[in-house]
Amino acid sequence: MRIVKLTPESRADILNSLLKRSPNHYTEYESAVKEILENVRTRRDEALFAYTLQFDKFALNAENILVTEEEIRAAYHIVDEKLVQVIRRSSANISAFHEKQMRSSWFDFREDGSILGMKLAPIHRAGVYVPGGKAAYPSSVLMNVIPAKVAGVREIVMTTPPDREGRVNPATLVAAHIAGVDKIYKVGGAQAVGAMAYGTESVPKVDKITGPGNIFVALAKKAVYGFVGIDSIAGPSEILVLADETASPGHVAADLLSQAEHDELASAILITTSAELAEKVSRETDRLAELLSRREIIQRSLENYGYILLAENMQDAVDAVNEIASEHVEILTANPFELMTKIRNAGAVFLGDYSSEPLGDYFAGPNHILPTNGTAKFFSPLNVDDFMKKTSIISYAKDALEEVYEDIVYFAESEGLTAHANSIKVRFGEGK
Which of 425, 394, 393 is closest to 407 using CA atoms? Predict the structure, then answer.
């Protein structure tokens, strides 16, 4: 891996390079996505079936679009029992973590008779997109579905592409069943996003769409935002390791490569104050990359978006961490908890040598659907609140309104909204 001295100029160059991976830069695909969505919106099932035949080579129809209970039972016989049990244990951890996020409605009863409050309620129907084929990740099924389930969403539907025989990845089916998905539809791509956003004869319209996908799925989610809610427009995976001279070069290198193997656009960055660690990690990543099964992807990722940044001091290193705002941040220093308080921008923070990033991907419980491409500056991990609606409650008695009505009238009239003012005045015999 290349070693670069951390300066304001190098930091700016790296940030510009990382931002080029954002789905917002892939505008050449937008017209194709727009056409698919418009066809699904107007032709509904007819378009859905045609696109599935075109892209997935399966003759989808109204009779076979829905995954059956028999198919789910068959999936349990295909998936290794050990994996089934691991999925169950992971599911329990994810549920326990997200249950702590639940909040209740609240009401403030005042002495003047007024009542103010916030009513919390789950959305009615959530839609989850799950990639198929080689990109099938049952862990992401759990991370998308369980927060919705904990929130109390009444119906959770899932779309995922079939293979040429109309089969869905069995591990995906097992994870969906364990997590509590209500219905699974055999459709993928931008057309699946359109089906959940607009509704078709077979696929119901949802209130919110979550889940990862390729660039067409990401752009489709961006396009339908407003018709439905979405979690985020996810970019390629990222890891940033903040380390000092106490870190293990082998552990740092292994952790960097754990994200570089996702795809060629993944980013892996080490920021350190130790020149000796930087050199050792550079050699170790080169050595280890040659031994791993996805070495070609890893090498392209490191060539394009892999950096070892050598900082003069830890404050400069922390400032760079906050500016990059990575999806995953590992702190491998003598006192990681002290530095953790200074990290403002990160999707998830992993503290200490035994908290490597895959722990969060699969098992610990916090959600692994995290903000990417610097959006950790203003976005949060997927959580229970993403599936809750908040409604303000206001109730004033006559005496309470009388005490403040002149202020309201004055405020409304200052904005030129006389009808607003009049709706208050008429209650006290002064309106028109």
Answer: 425
